[in-house]
Design a protein that fits this description.
- The N and C termini lie far apart (61 Å).
- The strands form four sheets. A seven-stranded mixed beta sheet has the order 4-9-8-7-10-11-15, sandwiched between helices. It has a three-stranded antiparallel beta sheet with strand order 1-2-3. It has a three-stranded antiparallel beta sheet with strand order 12-14-13.
- It is built from 20 helices and 15 strands.
- The chain has two domains: 1-110 and 250-433 and 455-515, no CATH class; 171-246, no CATH class.
- By secondary structure, the protein is α/β, with parallel strands linked by helices.
Length: 515
């Protein structure tokens, strides 16, 4: 049986079995990132036999090591990204190339097709939430509730308040906004289409994908610029267009990068594409390479990323104190139940959230929010780490970088995992809120606009940060995960069990459990 013909961006193939090893590559990238800040752990990572189960300790070590000095996160990001770009391979016409060198291989030009929205309404922003369209005082009240309940951080709440106070920010006719993975369920396409944006949409050639993109833009007031393999007539019908538009980030990486360089305006690049499993790492690498290339040639390029709350972050001391207080203030029923379940599970469940503080050379202490969910796997963690590294490094180099933690969201890609779906349904048991996609879309789109428009936003590299890792602390909507009483993954099984059973539980028991 012959081997499949490889095309585009791939994990490196091992000589001994002619197959890729995502674990080996992941270990090597994380080990290289740790190599100067924790050499002994870096060596341990290389030899790790059970990477799929033990990877959280190494990702936590990246954050812990990064806290100590203000230069270490920059070193970690540089080493990790360089290793990643040198590790991955790119196949073109049957030839293997190092991914770091692929921009020279653009072998044809993509064409651009423009579509104008048919709506003339003025830009408007609201937040769909529990069947309502929240605006004005109603939205301000909900933001305050989220802040009071520890669902969002004060900096996130304040950014949304600023957006409410500046409706003029939402006229984006002066911005050219590139969406990698434009049709992404958690992405901002719907809102940019209402805000007069110039939208450069990059997504797979797919009738379903482009039907969604084209219809969304047509119903709004924005202008779409889409890639095409051929020069299409301006009057081409939408039924034909959806079969002709699109470009593949994994196989056309250099062509997409060159196409973006042809755009005359400054670009705001948003890395929102998601694919399952190991493809998520590959598409993150493709987006990273394009961002790096375009930023090198267009100095005023800005970057945007949406972080996941199920990751590991440095956090302010105040949040550690709040989590500890929540643990100590549990009801007697919760204490009894959690202690019993912890004992039965040999203390694998209901571990107290970390209260350890780490000192930095800047004189401050930080905690660590370890919200990694093992079921999401090391590939997911690596894909998101690549994005954090690029954000950290780009801002250090003077770029405007919008990177905010988006809440856990009930997108299809998440809820198709039965355990995660059930855990989200039961999240309220631990004062955690999972958001519907339409709510997340509205909130995170507004946060991006805030970061582009507000000169006081930490996205602006001229705003001083006391530590590079504070970039990910600001503007966080973690849904309550940072402030929960327990280490998140040790409470996940009960949250899932509660989510499965919630509809059948007596109301009185629900009330007691949520006390």
């Amino acid at each position: 049986m012959s081997s499949p013909i490889l095309d585009g961006l791939q994990f490196p193939i091992q000589e001994q079995n002619n197959k890729p090893s995502t674990s080996k590559t992941g270990r090597e990238i994380i080990a290289e990132a740790l190599s100067t800040v924790n050499p002994s752990l870096a060596q341990q990572a290389i030899k790790e036999k059970n990477w799929r189960k033990t990877y959280p300790q190494y990702f936590k070590a990246l954050v812990e090591s990064g806290i100590k000095t203000i230069n270490d996160p920059i070193k970690i990001a540089e080493l990790g990204l360089n290793k990643a770009h040198q590790s991955f391979e790119f196949y073109r016409d049957g030839q293997k190339h190092c991914f770091a060198n692929i921009m020279q291989f653009a072998n044809h030009s993509l064409h651009t097709f423009a579509v104008k929205g048919e709506n003339t309404s003025a830009p408007e922003w609201y937040v769909p939430y529990q069947g309502q369209k929240l605006q004005g005082d109603a939205l301000l009240s909900q933001i305050q509730t989220w802040e009071n309940n520890g669902i969002v951080e004060p900096s996130h709440a304040n950014a949304l308040r600023e957006a409410i106070a500046h409706p003029e920010w939402f006229d984006l006719s002066d911005r050219t906004m590139v969406l990698f993975g434009a049709a992404s369920e958690a992405g901002p396409l719907t809102w940019l289409s209402k805000w007069k944006a110039n939208i450069v949409a990059v997504d797979l050639p797919s009738e379903r994908v482009w039907d969604k993109i084209l219809n969304t833009v047509k119903s709004g007031n924005a202008t779409l610029y889409a890639p095409s393999q051929e020069n299409l007539d301006a009057n081409t019908d939408i039924s034909v267009l959806k079969t002709k538009l699109g470009a593949n980030l994994l196989t056309q990486t250099p062509e997409i990068a060159q196409w973006l360089l042809e755009k005359p305006n400054d670009l705001d690049l948003a890395a929102i594409a998601y694919l399952d499993g190991e493809k998520h790492v590959r598409v993150s690498m493709a987006m990273d390479a394009i961002m790096q290339f375009v930023s090198t040639h267009k100095a005023n390029t800005s970057l945007m990323f949406m972080c996941t709350p199920t990751d590991v972050y440095a956090i302010p001391k105040e949040i550690v104190d709040a989590s500890s207080a929540k643990f100590n203030d549990r009801s007697q029923l919760q204490k009894t139940l959690s202690k019993a379940i912890s004992s039965l599970s040999f203390k694998h469940l209901f571990k107290e959230n970390s209260t350890e503080l780490y000192s930095s050379e800047n004189g401050k202490q930080y905690g660590i929010a370890d919200c990694l969910v093992i079921e999401q796997g090391p590939n997911y963690a690596l894909a998101k780490r690549i994005q954090q590294w690029r954000a950290t490094l780009a801002r250090h180099m003077g770029q405007r970088v919008s990177i905010n933690i988006a809440p856990s969201t009930t997108t299809h890609s998440v809820t198709k995992n039965p355990l995660l779906k059930a855990a989200f349904n039961g999240a309220s048991l631990f004062d955690v809120e999972a958001f519907k996609p339409e709510t997340t879309n509205a909130i995170m789109a507004a946060l991006w606009i805030h970061d582009l428009r507000n000169p006081k936003s930490v996205a602006n590299p001229e705003v001083k940060l006391e530590h590079p890792l504070e970039l990910m602390m600001e503007g966080a909507n973690h849904g309550g995960l940072w402030r929960v009483a327990y280490l998140a993954r040790t409470a996940l099984p009960l949250a899932a069990l509660y989510g499965f059973a919630e509809a059948k539980l007596p109301k009185a028991l629900k009330k007691n459990l949520n006390k």
